[in-house]
Design a protein that fits this description.
This protein has 2 helices and 5 strands; from the N terminus they run E-E-H-E-H-E-E. With about 100 residues, the chain is of the alpha+beta class. It is globular, with a radius of gyration of 14 Å.
Length: about 100
């Protein structure tokens, strides 16, 4: 039972790096979307990573229709698309690399 769980975010340090954090997963329950939950979760994750010494935060996201909300959120919160790998997930769906540099 997830009770009142509205969303979840997973983040951590990237092994073998100094000061690189990763946004590993961010998901918001459909009934809780467009209510600031994703923004709050992303802010908490980047804040925790920054407090832990992260100089950059990376996120790898499929460039697919079902991820357009997350991609819009990343852009709105200061993440910049740094690159992509075409056809990574399946034909026509690239892996995109997003980077946030905390101030």
């Amino acid at each position: 039972d997830t009770g009142d769980l509205a969303g979840i975010v997973l983040h951590g340090e990237v092994a073998g790096t100094r000061g690189t954090g990763a946004l590993l997963w961010l998901s918001v329950r459909p009934s809780s979307r467009r209510r600031g939950v994703g923004r709050a979760l992303l802010g908490a994750a980047t804040g925790a990573l920054r407090s832990g010494g992260a100089r950059i935060v990376v996120a790898e996201v499929a460039d697919s229709p079902e991820h357009q909300g997350l991609l819009a959120l990343l852009r709105a919160r200061g993440f910049v698309r740094e690159g992509s790998v075409p056809d990574f997930y399946r034909e026509g769906v690239a892996l995109t690399l997003w980077v946030f540099r905390p101030g």
